[in-house]
Specification:
Layout lengths: L8 E2 L3 H7 L3 H8 L4 H10 L7 H10 L2 E2 L23
Parallel strand pairs: 1-2
């Protein structure tokens, strides 16, 4: 029987990500934030610190989850944009 590839579930908010990763304390430890208040501030701003992107998205991936890079204040490629491959020299 062939294995089916599961599509990661996309989370849509900072609060969704924090809950999925085990709550404020877990995210504080994962990101090495100095206090719980730092994580609470991310909730209020609806944006994570950019330097937490890799560790948090790696943790989400392990759970079969994703979240938009915009939650970390990053720009994403607009839909429909095509980038031509560079020619090999």
């Amino acid at each position: 029987m062939p294995k089916t590839k599961l599509t990661p579930k996309a989370l849509e908010s900072v609060d969704d990500v924090i809950r999925a990763l085990g709550g404020t304390r877990s995210v504080m430890e994962l990101t090495e934030a100095k206090t719980n208040q730092v994580v609470t501030n991310w909730r209020s701003l609806n944006r994570f610190a950019a330097n937490t992107y890799v560790v948090m998205t790696d943790a989400l991936k392990l759970k079969g989850l994703t979240a938009p890079a915009s939650l970390w204040g990053m720009k994403e490629m607009p839909e429909g944009v095509v980038i031509e491959a560079a020619e090999a020299t």
